[in-house]
Amino acid sequence: MTQGLGTRHAPSWRLIQAHFGLGVAGLIAFAAALAVCAPSLQGFFFQPVLLGLVHLCVLGWLMPIAIGALHQLVPVVFQVPVRSERLAWAAFALYVVGAPGLIAGFFTLDTSEPAGLLLPVSATLTALALLLYAANLLATLGGAGFARNGRSPQGGALAKSARRTLTGVHVHAALCWLSIAVMLGALMAWNLRAPFLPLFHVSVLRAHAHAAALGFFGLLIMGVAYRLLEMFLLSYGAPERAGWLGFFAVNAAVLLLGASFFGAGDILLRAGVASAAVGVAAFAVQVRAIFIRRTKRRIDVSWQHTATSIAYFALALAAGGTLALVPVGEPWWDRLHVAYALLAIPGFIGTIVVAQLYKILPFLVWLHRFSQFVGLKKVPAASELLPEAPKRVQYFAMHIGLAALVAGVLADCAPLRTGGAVLFAGSALLFARNLGVIYARQP
């Protein structure tokens, strides 16, 4: 089982640690900012506080962990090394310079000189970092997909072509959508300083947000979840029809929604919402197919997070579909936008990230510190590096907090928003503590 996450193709442990560490620090920063800003989570979504929080959540917390996980999983799943680990480190250096400036720029949204350069310059550096990441990982996938005679450039036997596996096509498409999203983001940052785009800025913002959230994170989570759930639940032989249907449906949804945002007509908007609904349903069906074939019968907190994330996915779809298809007046229009973002980003994406880190980190720590002592002395299993009780407390704190926060937004109740945000912040600290306990374990 542990060999599933660690082979000779895996990159250096330092690279993965750097990304995971940055992501956990970003989670704590986001949770603290959310607790402070909770009373002002209202009004039109295009405002400094909301833009700053969204980008702190995505760029500070979710993106570093997603990129770190990809650098671990892509090489070992497809049996090829990362094309260039040096390029990964270069992208990381650009990212840690650009992302904090971009987040700070959104919190101020100052377009005056010279402060107005902070946002576009930081956006360019961040976009360049993410494009380098995407190019490096796509080249790695290409090495798996196009090697001659089924052999890697280093001579090792390959898994099935990355272009043909369910996980491979999801990761490939997700990286393409990430590239589109970051280019749109950089263009908008420069457009805020000196407008030049012949398009309505908010329309570009909507396309950027959905390419990143649904195109990148949505497809990435779906594809990686299928592989990780098979590994950790010891599940074999599930049919993949629903997974393929979900893949095509979500890609179609991003295309249709993007076209509708640029004035292509309400019919495309409705088709995009319907296609997204098919994608969410197909994802749930595929996960269920994997789950019912598991040989590991015990259900842990990580699985509970995963199941809860699918519920958030469905709720986010309901909120987004209501905004797209139902004539909603003020103040519900603004409230639903904020609720939509909370359900989709810290709700769906954040929950699945927490779920998989509870699985990935213990196995990596076990591989790098404990595996060499097997047979020489008694060592704990990876699942024993942290008891279930603190993970269960963190689970309830996180989801009760998010539920209260969303309810406070919809009811326009500042004390409820604040209480939910504080509880979520507590869950973030407990999550960091739990990961710290795992990381500190020694043979």
Question: In summary, what is this structure?
Answer:
The protein is 75% helix and 0% strand.
Q: In what range is the share of β-strand residues?
A: under 5%
The helix fraction, in percent, is: over 70%
Distance between the termini: 19 Å
Tally of contiguous helical segments: 12
Main sheet attributes: strand count, strand direction, barrel closure: none
Shape: globular
The helix/strand class is mainly alpha
Compute the CA-based radius of gyration: 21 Å
Structural description of this entry:
The chain is built from twelve helices and no strands. It is an all-alpha fold. The chain has a domain at 1-164. Helix 2 (48-78) packs antiparallel against helix 3 and helix 6 (201-233) runs antiparallel to helix 7. Residues 145-160 have low confidence and may be disordered.
